[in-house]
Amino acid sequence: MRGWWIGAACLAASAALHAQESTASASPAPAPAANSSNELSAPAAAVTQPTPPRQIPVGSARHKQRQHRAHPEPSTPSPITDHFALRGTYFMGSVATTGQFSSPGMTGTPFSAEQTLGLSDATNQARAELMFRLEQRSRLRMDFIDLQRSGDAVLTAPLQYGDQLFKQGARLQSELDWRQTDFTYTYSFLRNDRFELGAGAAVHLLQAQARAQVPNSPQRVVYSEAGPFVTIAADGTVRIDRHWSLSVRGNYFKLTINNNNGSLADYHADVQYRWRANFALGLGYEYERVDVDLLHANPAGYVQMRISGPELFARLSF
Fold first, then answer.
1. For 230-253, b where at least 16 C-beta lie within 10 A, e where not — what string?
2. Which of 78, 79, 94, 226 is deepest in the core (most CB within 10 A)?
């Protein structure tokens, strides 16, 4: 019975020792004492700043960087690098117009506007053109044609002009006005420092008016039509060297509705010299043909007009 307290004392001493070891391991290590004057201190460790994490582009930013590395943007000043361009043109063209206007029960007489009606076959006029580049590969071009001609001729044969019959020998005064506003969008699927090739569509706002009358007479006829027309467009540019470039473009479409036919073709080519980074001079050639054949309309008939000729232009771009 006397040995129980010996076991209890040993158990208590073991528990106290275990608690002391736990306290020592949990408490922070004491700060080292200051070195005396005859003791050498260890050099302090250099403090380094953590390296900031690398920023990795995500989404569209990563795609744009990868696309830029694969297809670097053109750098040599040319029509390929222009984001805005204003072109002033002096067009020295020729016009050929034929037509026929019929009314119900009366078949019109085929005529030439230049030979029969005495309209001029030349058109020397100033034109303007604007081009905007949207982003890097999309372009919008706007141009305008205003062709107004008048004639005064003595008829050498009777002319059935719609519902009016103008007799042989009558003096006929006539006017033919043609207005055209074009909006052309193209997307360049090929674009680098030397080549650009694109395709798209164009909307042409057309307005035509034809008038004919015998002076001091009730004989007078006026026809007027207006409307939009859509064509398929393509254009391309080749930078030959640092100063010279060649540009071509074309629009075409033919539409048939209820035996009424209409087509428009417009082709253009020019070569230009880049005199300064933002200024160029050039020489070009334009060809446009419009065909309208109306079988079920009043008046019925057809009109064919061809405009072609060279042009000189100056081009300001940024």
1. ebebebbbbbeeeeebebbbbbeb
2. 78
For 85-317, which CATH superfamily applies? OMPT-like (2.40.128.90)
Measured distance between the N- and C-terminal CA atoms of the chain, rounded to whole angstroms: 112
Taking phi over 0 as left and psi of -120 to 50 as alpha, with beta for the rest, 33 belongs to beta
HSE toward the beta carbon, residue 35, CA cutoff 13 A: 7
Strand partners, 176: 149, 210
The answer to whether 309 and 275 have CB atoms below 8 angstroms apart is no
Do residues 268 and 280 touch, judged by C-beta distance below 8 A?
no
Which residues have C-beta within 8 Å of that of residue 199, sequence separation ≥ 6? 186, 187, 189, 232, 233, 234, 235
Gap between the Cα atoms of 145 and 268, Å rounded = 14
Residue 266's CB is within 10 A of a number of other CB atoms, namely: 23
Tens-digit pLDDT profile for residues 60-117: 556 555 555 556 778 899 999 999 999 999 999 999 999 999 988 889 999 999 999 9
- For residue 224, the number of C-alpha atoms closer than 13 Å in the C-beta half-sphere is 3
Question: Facing residues of 48 across strands?
Answer: none
Beta-carbon contacts of residue 145 (< 8 Å; ≥ 6 apart): 127, 178, 179, 180, 181, 182, 307
> What's the pLDDT tens digit per position in 38-72?
444 444 445 555 555 555 555 555 655 555 555 67
Enter the DSSP assignment of 99. Answer: E
What pTM was estimated for this model as a whole?
Answer: 0.76
d(CA 267, CA 251): 6
* Amino acid letter, residue 296: H
Residues whose CB is less than 8 angstroms from the CB of residue 241 and which lie 6 or more positions away in sequence, other chains included: none
